[in-house]
Amino acid sequence: MRKHVSWLVAATLAGALASGGSLPLGQIIDDVQCAADASQHYSLYLPSNFTPTRRWPVILAYDAAGRGRRAVERYKDAAEKYGYILAGSNNSRNGPWEISLNAAKAMTGDVDKRFPVDPKRIYTAGMSGGARVAMKLAMDSNIIAGVFAAPTTSTTRKCARSTAISRARTAWKYSTAATPGFRSNSRPTVWSGWNCKR
Question: 174-177: long-range contacts at Cβ-Cβ below 8 A with a sequence spacing of 24 or more?
Answer without folding.
Answer: 175/57, 175/121, 175/123, 175/145, 175/146, 176/82
